[in-house]
Design brief:
Number of helices: 20
Number of domains: 2
CATH topology of the largest domain: Na+/H+ antiporter like fold
Helix content: over 70%
Number of strands: 2
Strand order of the largest sheet: 1-2
Distance between the termini: 65 Å
Shape: globular
Strand content: under 5%
Radius of gyration: 22 Å
Structural class: mainly alpha
CATH class of the largest domain: Mainly Alpha
Largest sheet: 2 strands, antiparallel
Length: about 450
């Protein structure tokens, strides 16, 4: 029990936390990449859960609590008060900064041409990947989850429960999908283009649905109007006026091949401003960061900015988000046969609604069976994007820690499935042959 924690104590604790979590992510990532056919980012998702109460806290609760304490007791006027530990606030802030810049990088890679190049197939796969999981998620929320207080906040209405769970099931790990396609050398192929286009549309719709849930869950119509109307207006302004203004960023870069310190600072300010505006109007900071990235000029400018930001964002900041998510994942809360049945039902609905539905949609659009199954496998992966949407809902008290833990299991399992199954269905040699044939 402490009266207070000094700044020095908090700094020392943070440095120790950073050392432990970065080291653990590196070790687990190496094991996953070398022996399990996974990517580093996927294994960092797993590391987050391993460092949380579900494993580390179960094996060594005292050590885990010393490293990542959730609460602290203060003595105020002779009374003992329990509050959230200040080190958790620091982890949260670092994680959110990482998310803002990561979503900016995702927006920087977002290209509407991916959709227009294969509009028919992309729309079919995208619709299947939205409608099927949304319906299945909505049915689960409206039926088997009703009458139980284990899943949603007490003030969340049934329509918002249905809307949220449906949106959460629609998510596709767009950044991971893009990384697998790039690593396999099929970025310019029909398979790569269709998958990226469909994944981009799915995530855009899912995030839009989340924005509606966040706005309407406030309970005040004025707040909802500000969030939805303000968010729409902000998106229009950024993608029109803002895009024309930011097009000037690339002028000097195309001429010199370099990004000056002043220009790089201007980019950072744009990202922070976009994140602040969307957060202030009641949506979430990541929306503004993503839209800012989508409005940035492409070409050499985007390549240099991505190179400057990506390594530190992915290598340093993202592990904090995974660990913070893991600290909130308590598998011990799934403590009954009923809750495990719900977890398995959610997982099955996610795989059928996304993976199988997208596979069939791709096949009906004229794609070969091998390509169709590969597309379905990629679309079924949830990855980091799912963790973001879950953390937002937990923070806003839309869902409970129990449902959060169930959905994290679904996100990790569907993500772990992606790389090995894709490699099995679509061998690397076949991918390279197709890439050379198409380009």
């Amino acid at each position: 029990m402490l009266d207070r924690m000094t700044d020095l104590e908090l700094m020392i604790r943070f440095l120790l936390q950073a050392f432990i979590l970065l080291g653990a992510c590196k070790i687990v990532g190496w094991i996953g990449v070398k022996f399990l056919g996974q990517t580093q980012v996927v294994m960092e998702m797993v590391t987050g859960v391993l460092l949380g109460p579900s494993l580390f806290g179960w094996l060594a609760p005292q050590i885990q609590n010393e490293l990542f304490p959730k609460t602290i007791q203060y003595v105020i006027d002779g009374q003992v008060t329990t509050a959230k530990h200040p080190s958790m606030f620091i982890l949260y802030v670092v994680a959110q900064i990482g998310l803002v810049f990561y979503m900016f990088l995702v927006g920087l890679e977002f290209d509407m041409k991916l959709i227009s190049d294969r509009i028919g197939g992309a729309v079919s796969v995208s619709l299947a990947g939205i409608v099927a999981p949304f319906i299945l998620g909505g049915i689960i929320a409206a039926t088997v989850m009703q009458g139980h207080n284990d899943f949603f906040g007490p003030n969340i209405t049934l329509p918002n429960q249905v809307l949220y769970l449906g949106a959460a099931m629609c998510i596709t790990a767009f950044p991971m999908l893009a990384r697998i396609i790039y690593e396999r050398g099929i970025s310019g192929t029909a398979l790569g283009t269709l998958s990226l286009g469909a994944g981009a549309v799915d995530d855009a719709v899912a995030w839009s649905l989340l924005a509606v849930v966040l706005a309407s869950s406030k309970g005040d119509p004025n707040i909802a109007i500000l969030a939805i109307g303000g968010g729409t207006l902000f998106a229009i302004l950024v993608l029109t006026v803002g895009k024309r203004l930011m097009a000037r960023f690339s002028e000097s870069v195309e001429a010199t091949g370099k990004v000056s310190n002043a220009l790089f600072t201007a980019v950072l300010l744009s990202v922070v401003a976009g994140a602040y505006i969307t957060d202030a109007i009641g949506i979430y900071a990541v929306f503004g960061a993503f839209l800012t990235g989508a409005a940035m000029p492409r070409g050499k400018f985007a390549e240099i900015i991505r190179e400057k930001l990506e390594f530190f964002t992915v290598g340093f900041f993202l592990p904090f988000f995974f660990v913070y998510s893991g600290l909130n994942t308590q598998l011990g809360l799934i403590n009954s046969a009923y809750l495990w049945e719900i977890a398995l039902l959610v997982l099955a609905a996610a795989i059928v609604g996304k993976g199988v539905a997208c596979t069939l949609a791709a096949r009906f659009s004229g794609e070969p069976w091998a390509d169709s199954w590969a597309i379905g496998t990629l679309m079924n992966s949830r990855g980091l994007m799912e963790l973001i949407i879950l953390n937002i809902a937990l923070q806003q008290k839309i869902i409970t820690p129990t449902l959060f833990s169930i959905m994290v299991i679904m996100a990790i399992v569907t993500t772990l499935m992606a790389s090995p199954i894709f490699a099995l269905i679509y061998p690397k040699t076949q991918a390279f042959r197709l890439a050379r044939k198409n380009g």
